[in-house]
Amino acid sequence: DSDHAGCLDSRKSTFGGVQFLGGDKLVRWSSKKQDYTSMSSAEAEYVSLSACYAQVLWMRTQLTDYGFHFDKIPMYCDSKVAIAISCNPVQHSRTKHIDVRYHFIKEKVEKGIVELFFVRTEY
Fold this sequence. Notes:
33% of the residues lie in helices and 22% in strands. By secondary structure, it is α+β, with helices and mostly antiparallel strands. Strand 1 and strand 2 (25-33) form a beta hairpin.
């Protein structure tokens, strides 16, 4: 989840995420200010989703080294727009301003490594 321009001084967004193992075991949570100022709430959410996936990817690599096997990784996001950006293989002019480093989640969705699901904010 993310806010948009929540910091009154820098106008940077704060984002957070939680990671569970096996669906019900909380193994990590985080809340952090984004590195740069997002131009929209959709961008703030997309950057948050990408940052969360980066952490999940690291965890998956570690667990794979210990012999665990994973199919698709389910990820839940409360932004339909961020999910749409991640699942759309076409780069539109409306999202062109989003830094390239955050688009790696798009590749993982296209390859079937990650599956994104919408969840209400109140979840």
